[in-house]
Specification:
Length: 785
């Protein structure tokens, strides 16, 4: 800590100033029953201007208290409403430059029970914050059959690739959380997790382009926080979704039950898909006479996915939340492929049957407590998950139509992790707050690999001990962080730091590799200046630690293609990134424009490399290169009117790779563009179009051609919104997508052209069960629930 006296001094100074700003312009009060004098919880309290136009909303807590922060000087009224009571309106009152404590509001019981009341509030679906955006999904109608993948395409600053993975500013190192839990407790991959969350069940999405020290430093170029809806009233509700498509079908259901302080929710789903891809590889090895390799590959993929989960939320009062959940995911993959290889005069064909089964068990739990005055929040959460995967393949090789070689493989992978985190957040009023936290993560990864080679003389498979291997590691990470947000009129500063200690011993079947522990202090700073009501500018700096992913480390060799081997590198070192950014934001009424200039410098960057080996073999693995620099600009625009919405995101990057290991310097521009537009000719009909345009990507040893796609969707609501029907078409005029990958290494050149099925037709139906949804204003809720 002594190494950073300037940072600590600045943090102490900022905290001291923040104490001065305590409780500025706060309006507070309480609500009680006029007869019994009992304080009333769950009363909807609205702060309005003198014309009774809603400005802020709050739900009273267990003590009947309510609070409104950052209230500008002026004249206001308070409106209190609750089922079974007469609407209460206050007399006008004035707010100056100090807090206002109002006398208790006496709620008068109605003569008879009131009918169900729908309370609505007009608010912008999209708002900005110092570190990104917030999208209120519940303020807009979501299409039937759409998932979080499709919803993210609507949001500025986010682009979604063909596989459903989100990108921010050109990076796929994005952390995704669902109801505060990392996606690993939800599904086996980010894409699967997002596809399991129906768009109509999402309440808010936070898009954080500049993650603070609160988040793990590992690869956090951006954060996406998804919060799902929770019922505010007793009863049962649910949805059933069905999708039928030319290469995909799915049936899912979800149900939620609430009885007073207990909320129980469950969901289950099954999907199946099939796809065929073909590719042609052409490689010239300059170090070998007649060293040209031609390969043709065709893969028929089939998959099935079953997922289910249950969660329980207990609210003993409006200040406390307990929650726990369990989730299961099972994926079956079947890949049957043929590989034709020709190098010189040597030609052979391989047929491979490669089934795999992958499963997930995830458990999470948490406790959240808010102080009575609402200024302090305590949060403790933990999760445990186990990801298991069983891979097999059976390979037959033919020369001149005669079988001359065969092998089979057994591969068992296990990845389990237990993590816990404790956080404290202190609100000093006037949008100033302090966050402190601790985290511990304990991971155990193992991979056991076995090969059997067919002995033609004995007509039996025999184990090959030279290729069998076992690899495992125990990974322990301890972290602590602190962030402080200071609001000084038109200035807002968010400063923080995170300390991480990593313990990481690796083990092989017959040896072990001791990697020294490493400790890192990772500072973070954002400064924002509001120029006027609609304009603001900002600047930020972040230091990030990029640990290698598991598949980057795993040394087990994949021999399916004997001329293109694949394996990880357990000797990889972590990389350090320094990120700088300048931003400008304009927001007025329904329009938003955000422009960001950014520069990232990564030392010891981890990149995929292809290395030539004897006999025309190329190894695909990973290595630490000297440096990776990115200079870019991101332009995000959004327009949201009553019947028309439009979002556009453009990211342009100039990147360069430099190396001290003999690799040439490589650089280039990458441009990616996403556009989403929807139009509602009537209240029940929506027409939506979105498109992605991506230029070629530059990598360490070559480039890959760009990808373009577009989608047209029509959604119709029936039966007062209970039934939704949608029809969708992707890439109508382009049935196939062709992608060319070029590698220019020191001793060889390689081209791979792949063809994917591109055209996609889909119809979807969504049926809402139970009580009709009551749209409510945004309120202060416990833990996002």
């Amino acid at each position: 800590m002594v190494k950073h006296p300037i940072v600590l001094s600045l943090l102490a100074y900022v905290i001291a100033i923040g104490q001065i700003a305590l409780a500025q312009n706060r309006v507070s009060g309480s609500v009680v029953d006029s007869i019994t004098g009992k304080r009333l919880a769950f009363v909807t309290v609205r702060l309005t201007d003198h014309n009774q136009k809603p400005l802020q909303n709050f739900i009273s807590d267990t003590l009947g208290r309510f609070y409104f922060e950052q209230v500008p000087p002026g004249s206001y009224r308070i409106l209190c409403s609750m089922t079974g009571y007469v609407l209460k309106k206050s007399e006008p009152f004035m707010v100056s430059n100090s807090g206002v404590e109002l006398p208790p509001f006496l709620m008068i019981r109605a003569g008879e029970t009131l009918a169900e009341v729908t309370v609505t509030a007009q608010g912008r679906p999209l708002s900005t914050r110092i570190d990104g955006f917030v999208y209120h999904a519940d303020r807009e109608t979501q299409e039937a059959g759409e998932t979080a993948v499709d919803l993210l395409r609507k949001l500025p600053g986010v682009q979604v690739d063909q596989n459903g993975a989100p990108h921010m500013r050109g990076s796929n190192r994005i952390k995704v959380f669902i109801d505060g839990r990392p996606f690993m407790t939800y599904a086996n991959s980010v894409t699967e997790a997002l596809r399991q969350v129906p768009a109509d069940n999402i309440k808010t999405v936070e898009i954080i382009t500049h993650p603070s020290a609160r988040y793990d430093s590992e690869g956090a170029d951006g954060v996406i926080n998804i919060f799902t809806k929770r019922p505010m009233e007793d009863g049962v509700s649910g949805t059933v979704n069905g999708i039928l498509a030319n290469r995909f079908n799915e049936l899912t259901g979800a149900i939620t039950w609430r009885r007073r302080q207990v909320v129980i929710g469950a969901d289950i789903g099954h999907s199946a898909s099939d796809n065929t891809t073909t590719s042609v590889l052409d490689r010239t090895d300059h170090s070998v006479n007649n060293g040209r390799l031609l390969q043709q590959k065709e893969i028929n993929n089939e998959s099935e996915n079953l997922f289910s989960g249950i969660h329980v939320i207990y609210l003993p009062d409006t200040l406390t939340t307990f929650n726990a959940g369990y989730r299961y995911g099972g994926d079956w993959f079947g890949a049957k492929s043929s590989l034709n290889s020709l190098m010189g005069s040597d030609a052979f064909t391989r047929t491979i049957d490669n089934p795999a089964f992958r499963y997930l068990h995830g458990i999470n739990w948490g406790w959240l407590r808010r102080s009575r005055d609402g200024s302090t929040e305590y949060n403790v959460m933990g999760y445990w998950f186990y990801q298991g995967q069983l891979n097999r393949y059976l390979l037959d090789q033919y020369r001149w139509q005669q079988k001359n070689y065969a092998e089979k493989n057994f591969n068992l992978l296990g990845n389990r992790e237990f993590s816990f985190q404790a956080d404290v957040r202190k609100d000093f009023g006037n949008d100033s707050e302090l966050e402190l936290g601790l985290k511990g993560a304990f991971r155990k990864f193992s991979n056991e690999n076995r090969f059997d080679v067919f002995d033609f003389s004995q007509s039996v498979y025999l184990p090959n001990s030279l290729r069998a291997d076992r690899f495992w590691f125990n990974w322990i990470i301890a972290a602590a962080y602190a962030t402080y947000t200071l609001n000084l009129d038109s200035w807002k500063i968010k400063i923080g730091g995170r300390y991480e200690h990593t313990h990481w011993p690796l083990h092989f079947r017959d040896t072990s590799l001791r990697i020294p522990d490493y400790q890192n202090f990772l500072p973070n700073l954002i400064i924002s200046k509001t120029i006027s009501t609609h304009h603001s500018v900002g600047a930020g700096y972040t230091k990030k630690l990029l640990r290698p992913y598991i598949n980057y480390l795993n040394p087990v060799i994949n021999y399916i293609d004997s001329l293109n081997l694949e394996y990880g590198n357990p000797y990889l070192k972590p990389a350090i990134t320094h990120s700088y950014e300048l931003t400008y934001t304009f927001q007025k009424s329904a329009g938003l424009l955000n422009v960001a200039l950014f520069y990232n410098h990564t030392g010891n960057s981890i990149e995929q490399v292809r290395i030539a080996q004897p006999d025309g073999i190329v190894a695909n693995t990973y290595a630490n290169v000297a440096a990776y620099d990115v200079l870019g600009a991101s332009i995000n625009a959004s327009l949201r009117l009553q019947r028309f919405t439009f979002t556009a995101t453009n990211t342009t990057r100039y990147l360069g790779f430099s190396s001290q290991n003999g690799y040439p310097f490589r650089d280039g521009f990458i441009i990616s563009q996403g556009v989403d537009a929807s139009f509602k000719p009537t209240a029940s009909l929506t027409i939506r179009v979105y498109a992605n345009l991506n230029s070629r990507t530059v990598n360490f040893q070559g480039h890959t051609t760009g990808v373009q796609s577009y989608t047209l969707l029509i959604n119709k609501e029936l039966l007062d919104g209970k039934l939704n029907f949608s029809a969708r078409c992707d890439n109508l005029s382009t049935p196939y997508r062709y992608v060319t990958e070029v590698t220019a290494a020191e001793t060889f050149n390689q081209h791979i052209e792949s063809r994917y099925i591109n055209r996609f037709f889909r119809v979807a139906v969504r049926w809402k069960l139970g009580k009709r949804e009551v749209k409510r204003p945004v309120v202060n809720e416990i833990g996002g629930y």
